[in-house]
Amino acid sequence: MSYLLRDSVKSITYLLGRFPCVVVLGARQVGKSTLLGQVLPESKVFDLERPSVFQRVHNDPELFIQETPRPLLIDEAQLSTELFKALRVEIDKNRRVMGQFLLTGSSSPQLLQNISESLAGRVAIFELDPLTWHEAVNPLVENKLLQEDFTNPEQLKQRQPAVSKAELLQLCLHGAYPEPYLGRSDHQYWSLWMENYIKTYVERDVRALFPQLNLQSFRRFVQMMAYASGNLINYSDFARSLDISQPTIKHYFEIAEGTFLWRRITSYATNTKKRMVKMPKGHLRDTGLINYFLRINDVDDLKSHPQFGRIWETFIIEQLIRSFNNRLEKVDYCYYRTQNQAEIDLVLQGKFGVIPIEIKSGSYTEKKQLKTLTKFIEENNCPFGLVINNGDEIFKMTDKIYQLPAIYL
Question: Mean pLDDT across the stretch 332-358?
Answer without folding.
Answer: 92
